[in-house]
Structures are given as structure tokens and as C-alpha cells.
Amino acid sequence: MAGNGNGNAMGRNGLPTIQTRPNGICHDDSSAPVKANTIDELHSLQKKKSAPTTPLNGIQGAANFSFFTEEERQQQQLQSISNSLASLTRETGPKVVKGDPAKRTGETPKVSHHHHFTVTPTISVSDSSLKFTHVLYNLSPAELYEQAIKYEEGSFITSSGALATLSGAKTGRSPKDKRVVRDESTEDDLWWGKGSPNIEMDEHTFLVNRERAVDYLNSLDKVFVNDQFLNWDPEHQIKVRIVSARAYHSLFMHNMCIRPTPEELENFGTPDFTIYNAGQFPCNRYTHYMTSSTSIDLNLGRREMVILGTQYAGEMKKGLFSVMHYLMPKRQILSLHSGCNMGKSGDVALFFGLSGTGKTTLSTDHNRYLIGDDEHCWSDNGVSNIEGGCYAKCIDLSREKEPDIWNAIKFGTVLENVVFDEHTREVEFEEKSVTENTRAAYPIEYIPNAKIPCVGPHPKNVILLACDAFGVLPPVSKLNMAQTMYHFISGYTALVAGTVEGVKEPQATFSACYGAAFIMLHPTKYAAMLATKMEKHGATGWLVNTGWSGGSYGLGKRMKLAYTRKIIDAIHSGSLLDATYKKTDVFGLDIPTEVEGVPSEILDPVNTWPDKKAYKETLLKLAGLFKKNFDVFTSHKIGKDSKLTEEILAAGPVF
């Protein structure tokens, strides 16, 4: 190459030096070598340190956290976690250290004597007390993906970027294995006995199971720890700590609980409630109160939950929901199993409904903001979502039917028990090989019209949804307060049971407060709180039937979704309040004579049945089922006298 005017300078071995031309046609695009002498050093340069995230609130000197070194921050964080994992017999926590043990092979974690917080055990030294437990604390989704794919069989990245996982032998909740400690603090508060979801256990048995879970977690090389929040209302927020053995569980709760900022974590302090999830490790079946190798135990006095013998992540979500059903009413806050959305003018609606009623579909409205899809609180400040994510059913999911859920299944989302193509990793949502209860857990901000923060003003409408497969409930009814309480306590829907010699029969399902499996107090207490709040803030109750019209299942037809949406729109706009109403027989419901966009003849179900005698028989049959279901609640008095109880009973069917 020609020189650049410096003459014919000679290089090595007498060869001329290669030089660039002034116009830069030839240039040297190399860069300085990396500042690393080994591959490990090079890898360390790849990752930039995050800001410190140490819980300090409640720790001596927390007010002066700015004076702590990073090492001191780390030690105080580990001290808090060690305290959570403390054995009740040894009265000390394990030696914990941050980080993945796989990255420290052959290396003993260095803990300075000054900051070492474990003490000599009061009983003989065990193997677990001699080892370090590595804590993977509030890992990011990317880090949890790596952990799951490396170490958890059945974890794969799907074509959309979601993490597919397996929950093991259990693919749903185990309500018969759920136990609640019955002691002096819960004896009078909680709902016990017939119809109650609360199966009792004593304090001693809980502590046996707690020790078993803690010993198992301490025996592992590593545990996952999440410090997060419940309830978007900052005034009534609950701090929760989840200690688990699987990355799948950690990512699930990262999505489902409210994710703290680094600043919030620095002041996290002692959690209000702790979950010890030992996953697949079973309980001892010879332990008193145990009826299987699975046990989900709540101790409201200790503010702790223990999970043994199940890896189904939904146990954590619903366990915390049960806790909120206990803690929030003590603050005069109503906890609700409902969907919630808000119009652009600030009008809020609550949607109650069991599986198959259309709660998710109807509360997801592109013209309204989504506050939440499942769990809420109603306080003096208004409504707030309890969770930070959504847990959606995936069976038969399609882009056309549920575009928002479909688009939310991307990087960061957990897909439970789905089946996918082994080569393309495309999920086959119609496939039920593992279970029909396939699920997706994703942060609520994955929904485009989610309202962040997930709070809103006091509800204007309370909508109770029923999929009445008997075909005798009206498409929409306006409820008075007593009727609202009656139908809220009943929590009715009807599903198709199956085929018997070619005849399909509907099966009535009742779930108190539309969430009987999770409530802790007697249903009438939640109903009374709902009525008080509705009266105070001027909310209207509605009963909407999304089920059959013109006959029962097999004879009539399912209510058109377009008509139901028109009814819901009329409720939101307030126009249905101004309609003309008439009263139905037996159930005594007020039904409108006209709703814009809905054929008037279908508003009264008797008009749609060609066989009027069959209609009356079916109506009386359903009324009898309501009455029989309500018998369990009739002996419970609300308030100082039985006046309100009598009003609620009078609001039921009369025949």
C-alpha cells in the first residue's frame, strides 16, 4: 500500500510499514484488548452490579442505612432471611450466603467473624448446621429462567418466550389437605364446622410440619427467597416472604405478588407473613390431622404458612388470599374474589362469578381499564387489587377468543403443565395430556389497558354472574340490598354435568361469596360488610345470567355474548337504572322491560320457553336447590338481633 508522505519507512524484516491514506480508505478498526487475564475475569466484566437491595426497616440503625457498607447491607439482609429459616428447637437460623452454589464449586463462602450471626446450637451439632445454605434473593425473571432450565426437569422456553414448567403429581389445589390452626385467637373469629373450608389442626402439629419444611429447605444447597407485597393500597399493604425450593415457584410469585422497587426492598424489614414451600417433600402421614402426604397449613397467630407434598404453585396464591380474607376484615376492609374494571369517567364495577360464568371475559373490556382479574380489597380509600399479576386458564386458548391473554404469554410468563411441540416449542393449548387445568401466570402490566397502580374509587356497580344451565334466571335483574346479600352468600352457577343415556342434566353449584374455598369468616360477615359499603357509596347490585335461554341445556340456547355485553354496557353507562321494571314469580327479581340492543322478549325467561309447564317445574326445582343450600346459613345471626338475617332469608325464592 502507498505511504502517507512519511517516506518509505521500514518495518520488521526490512518490509515497508503499512500505512493508511489521508482520506481514510484503509484504516485500523481494531480496539484495545479486554482488561481480563482469564475467562472468569472476562465473564465477570459481562455483568454489571445491581443497586443494593437490602431490607433494613426494623433493624437497629435502619435510619442510618446510608452509612452502611455494601458488605454490611448484605449481612443484614442475610440475617433477616436466616431468622425466617430458624429452627424452633435450635432457636437459630442456618448459615446463609448469597449466590448460586454452582458458581462457588470447591469454595467455602467467606463470612467475616464480625458479621457471622449464627450461634453455637443448644443441641448437638448436625450436618445441616455445618453447611451453608445459598440464598437466591429476589432474582429477576431472566435469572430464574436460567435456574429452571439448568436444574428443573420439565422446564423449557416456548416459542413465544414463556417458561413452560411442570407442577408434578398435583395439577390443582388440594382443598381437603388444607389445615388452619384452631387456637384462642381463631376459635371465635373463624368459620368452623358444616360448610366451612377451614379444617382445624392444633399448634403443635403445625410446628411439627413447620420444622419438617424448614429442615428440608435448610438441607438444600440453595433456596429461593422472594420479598414482595400484597395490596396496591399503600396504606394497607402486607409484606410477604416466600421461601421455596424451585425457580418455578419463585418466578410464579414474582409475577403474582406486587414487585417491590430496590428502594422499597431497602426498607422491607421483617415480613408480615412468611410461606415455607417445601414442594415435593411430603408431610409425615403419621402426624396427627394428616390424611395424605400433602399438607397446606395456615397459622394466623404466627403469620406463617407451610406447604408439604405439592408443587402446585396455586397453593401459594390462594393461601395468601385466605390470609387476606382474615387480615383485611379486621381492618374493616372487605376482601373480594372478583374481577374489577374502571371506565374512563372513573366508574368502577366489581364482577363476581364462578368458573364458566364469563367473569374474565366480561371484566376484560378494551373500553375500560383493568384494575384486576381475581382478588380485591374494598376499603375507605376505594378498591385495590391484592395481586401484581394474573393467573389465567389456558385450555383451548386462542388469539381470537382472548387476545390480551394470548399476547401476555411472552418472556417472563410461567406456563403450567402445557403441552408443546418438541421441535418448534409452539404450545398446543387444546391439548389436555397433562391436565385440563393448564395456566399462565404473568405480571398485570402485560395487559395493555391495565391501570397501574391497580387502585380505583368506590364501586358504582356490583355484578353477580351466573351461568344458569337450567335456563330460568333472567338475563339481567336489578337487586335490592337484601337480594344482593342473598345471592352473594349463595354464589350460584350451574354447569353441565355430563350425559346419562343421551340426556344432559345441569348441575347446580354453590360457592359462598363466590369463593368458599378461600374465605375464613362466616359468609354472612362478608355479606354484611358488602351491604354496608354498597349503601354508604351508593352502589347497585345486579344479577346477570350468562347461561341458557328458551330451555335448559340441551333444549334452549346459550345467551349470546353480544347481548350480555350490551347489558353490561347499559349497567356501566347508568342507562339501566332508568329502565322500567317488572317483578318475576318465585325469585321476586326486578327485570327491565327494555335494554338497548337486546330483544325485549328474552328479558323475561318465561317468554322464551315453548313449554310453560316445564318452565315452571324447572323454576321451582332451582328455587328448591337455592333453599336447600341456604339452610346451612339460616342459624347464623348478623348483628345484635336477627332482623338482618330475616331480611336476607326473605329475599330468597318464595314458593
UniProtKB/TrEMBL annotation:
It catalyses: oxaloacetate + ATP = phosphoenolpyruvate + ADP + CO2. It is found in: Cytoplasm. Its EC number is 4.1.1.49. CDD domains: PEPCK_ATP. It is an enzyme of class 4 (lyase). One of its GO terms (cellular component) is cytosol. Keywords: ATP-binding, Cytoplasm, Decarboxylase, Gluconeogenesis, Lyase, Nucleotide-binding. Residues 90-113 are annotated as: Disordered. Residues 97-107 have a biased composition (Basic and acidic residues). Transmembrane segments: none annotated. One of its GO terms (molecular function) is phosphoenolpyruvate carboxykinase (ATP) activity. It holds the Pfam family PEPCK_ATP. Pathway: Carbohydrate biosynthesis; gluconeogenesis. GO terms for biological process: gluconeogenesis. PANTHER family: PHOSPHOENOLPYRUVATE CARBOXYKINASE (ATP), PHOSPHOENOLPYRUVATE CARBOXYKINASE ATP. NCBIfam families: pckA (TIGR00224), PRK09344.1-2 (NF006820), PRK09344.1-3 (NF006821). Belongs to the phosphoenolpyruvate carboxykinase (ATP) family. This is phosphoenolpyruvate carboxykinase (ATP). It comes from Heracleum sosnowskyi.
